[in-house]
Amino acid sequence: MAEQFIHQQHAHCESGVTSNLLKHSGIALSEPMTFGIGAGIFFGHLPFVKVSGIPGTTFRIWPGYIFKRVTQRLGLKIHTEKFSNEAKAMEALDQALARNIPVGMIAGVYYLNYLPEAFRFHFNAHNLVVYGKENGQYLVSDPILEGTSQIGYDDLARARFAKGFPEPKGKMYYITEAPDTIDLAKGIKDGIKQTCFFMSSPPVPWFGINAIYTLANKIEKYPEKLTPRQCTLYLGNIIRMQEEIGTGGGGFRFLYAAFLQEAAQYLSHNELGKLSERCTKMGDQWRNFAYSAARICKARESDLVSYKELSALLRGIGDTEKQFFKDLKAVRFS
Fold this sequence. Notes:
The protein is of the alpha+beta class.
């Protein structure tokens, strides 16, 4: 029944949804552990993918990946589905709710009218849980909020089929079966291995560490190739993706540091604990970068850095993360 689902606030939407759905299925896993096993940390700069004319930057793995990988690595069975029209998507949701199944889904933030107006903008990769329906209203567990919410049929349907990149296409997902026991140690190790591959191995300049250097090079050339207005918009979008979408660049590093700390305790592995401390410092570096970029956007005179200096800050982050993931990859487990 709806009242059996326990809502818990988390830092990031998909890892929070996954953690809450796991707990509902009898597996108590923290958000940092969920994020780490799901290899959620990432970086990508996609100049060929534009949102409102601005190149895309992402600090997390693509939507749906965390839930898929965590459940796969822990041996849970799941159901995922996309739809061609709103009516079929809403009917499938109602059918799952009638069976007392809490349903995760991807939605466009702009149409989620339970959010404060200042938080509602065109971002189509937000995760939430619908866990029941009462008096024509859907009961929502949105992990970024302290409490639960409600939303009507029309607004939820619009959110599930929001236009723009990426299109949610009514995607919904839920757990169908959970094992009696899980191999958490293997999940941790597999998650770390996957993360190191994603950050260190892609040969293209748009993903992983390479993408950090690519963005640094582009930022240095912004004043030469863009108008002052475009410079502000491009930098502002990087800051928004880092600090406002989910937990962003610095926040994701802090979340991953918490994962490594938990993993160190669970596996009795001191080296992971030391790497956790280094990962926290990486988060601080990203926050300093965002602060400096914001000063440029607001044209503040004090503490103002040049685009060349901002680019150098980002290259420094790239150097730090390159060594960090090299050392994390080299960790040996008994």
